[in-house]
Each structure stands twice: as C-alpha cells, then as structure tokens.
TrEMBL record:
Species assigned in the record: Salmo trutta
Lineage: Eukaryota, Metazoa, Chordata, Craniata, Vertebrata
Coiled coil: none
Protein name per the record: Protein-lysine N-trimethyltransferase SMYD5
SET domain location: 20-351
MF terms (GO), sorted A to Z: histone H3K36 trimethyltransferase activity; histone H4K20 trimethyltransferase activity; zinc ion binding
Amino acid sequence: MAAPEDDMFSLCVDPTKVSSCVEVRFIDKIKGKGLFAKKAIKKGDTIFIERPLVSAQFLWNSLYKYKACEFCLRALETAEDNARRLSGIPDLSLPHPELCKVHPELHQACPQCQVMYCSNECRQAAADQYHRALCLGSSQEDPNHPISKLKDAWRSMHYPPETSSIMLMARMVATVKQAQDKGHWQKLFSQFSSRAANEEEEIAHKLLGEKFQGQLNLLRTLFTTALYDDHLNRWFTPEGFRSLFSLVGTNGQGIGTSSLSQWVHACDALALTSQQREQLDSFIDQLYKDVEKETGDFLNCEGSGLFLLQSACNHSCIPNAAASFPSNNFLLHLSALSDISPGEEIGISYLDCCQRDRSRHSRHKILRDNYLFICSCPKCVSQMDELDLTSDEEEEEEEEEEGGGRGG
C-alpha cells in the first residue's frame, strides 16, 4: 500500500501546493512506490522543498572540524574562516565579505553539552524533537560514555568517504523516546522502503566491509547500552537492528552545506565590469586550486537525512529531477531538469554524470553493487535489445579506470 498522502507531504514547506502538483503511487512489488506529476512541470521549476524527519552530520566530518548546526546542518564557519581552513592560508581575505550569509552572533550552544546551533530556533527544535534524550551534558568529552563509545566504534568501522552515520539511527530512537505520540513517529519511519533479510545483510556488508557481521553485533550491543527503550524493543533485536541499519543505508539522502560555496554563488550574481569579473573569477579559481592542494575533495559539511517525499523518487539513468541544498541547510529542493508531463514519473539519478554516460552493463553493476537493484528505467529498457559490439571492451576499460572494480 502507498503511504497516506498527509504523511508523505507533512514535512514539505507548502504541503497543500505540493500535493496539488505531485502524487505518490504504488507501482509494483519490485519498485514499490513512485512519485508522479499531477500537472505539467516546467524545466527549472522547484517541485517541492522538504525538511528531513531526522538528519545528522557524519562523524568523521565533524571530527575534522567541519562545523555545522547540530539540527539543520547549516555551515557555522564564515566563508572567510572556511576558506582559510580549507586552503591552509591563515591570513586569507575574501573580497565582498558582506556576501557571506553566516551570522555567528546568532549561534547558540546547548547549555548542558555545548554542541552548537545556528540559531535559538534550531537549538529549541532539536531539544523538542530528540536532543534531550541524547544530550551528554558534562560527559560530552568523556570517552567512556555509552554514546561516545558508540560513535568511536562507528568511526573505526566506517572511514571517509562517509555515506551514513549511526547517529541518524540514534536520533530516530531519541525522537520516538521524546514523542508524546510515539506511534505517529514509528508510523512515519515505517514509510521508508524495507528490504528482505538477505538484502539487509548485503547493505550491512556494503557499509561495514568484510567483517560486517561481527561489527554489526558490536554496534547493536553498544546501541542497546546507550539508547534502549521498551517502546522500541524490536529495534534492538538482531533482526530489528539489522532492518534499522538497512533502512538508513537504503534511504539516507546525502546533505552537503558550505558557506564558501554559498559565497561563491553570491559572487556569481554580482553586477560587475568585465575587468572586475575577470579579477574576481581569477581569485576564486586560485582559491579552489589552493583548497584542492590542501584539502582535496572534502569541501563541505556533510551528513545525511531521511526525507519522506523524496524517498518516493525512484532512480532513472535519464533523470528529470535532481535534489540540491541551496539554502545551505538540510532543506532539500527537488527541481525539474526537463519539462515533466502530467502522469509522468519523477525520477532522480543515484549516479553522477560520468557514471550515467557509461554502458548499460557498467551502470547496472554500480547500481547493483551499491544500491542492490537492477535499473529498468526507459534508457536501460531501450538499450536492452540493442547490439553493443564494444560493450565487453568498455566494461574492461571502465573496471581498469576504477582500479579493478569497487570494493565492499
């Protein structure tokens, strides 16, 4: 059965408007639900803006001093401070500092544990939803606290580049713990796609590596010690914990925020003379070269979240929509990449642009290895019967480029 419409749209910025534009339908037992247009959507239109049920910054990302709001993941460093840290140039000055949208004077700390928020509104929202159940108070730096042990265990098992966080699961538990209507939240979490037992094991293997079974048991023990609640006892059983782990691994949507990136976009919109534009572009180009040399590809505050409506979007190798985070926080904007007709399914891509240009076999291998499904989008179906005389050579070349293929 498809999820009730009022649940699926409940976290959108304008639920009434969104529900008049799109609908969730059950497709079949293999694809599950999908998102479909109810009326014409034009290329470039924002289809919806949605906040997550829960979100969390990645633990290594936080440890490496990428400062983000504990609730909405907004970057807390000013663009200049961010640029100085990423480039390794401590006296760097950015032109047009007024374009930075970070306001340190509004930042607030939890009075008990001192974790930081971008505003009093976020601090209060976190406290109301889950933080009271997770706040470590004066034990924030105590390595022997059960939650600290859980975090350390996760970091030791899941190195960068990160794709998930045990704290997303912890916030799910804490949210239900604090809720007056516990059944309502459990119902919302149950809307996300579930997997068969063998698929859940594959997801755990993908996230944790070859020693996943022992690591999963250790995580469950630490998770239970830190967070056990009678109302959620099934989440702490071996089967229930594996399902919870699979839910987060399958449905978690990556979130990236950056005060520097936001500043660069603001610079792009400035009305400048050609000479001023050339100078500013040259400065920005050199800055990114310095950042790449010092920091590599890890530019953003990164985390993941569970988005109800976005989770209804299936993968397509020719996507007509894409998710982004232009507000520099956890608000997901789903935008149309092409005109979408009434009744047409809205699809996003789990692959990047380069991966989408590869052969059908290669795309299927990436999707199977990382997302545990075989794509049946129009592009893949149309290519299925085509004779590709170079496919074998392409596959060998692609695997050589990847260094012999992807690991677990």
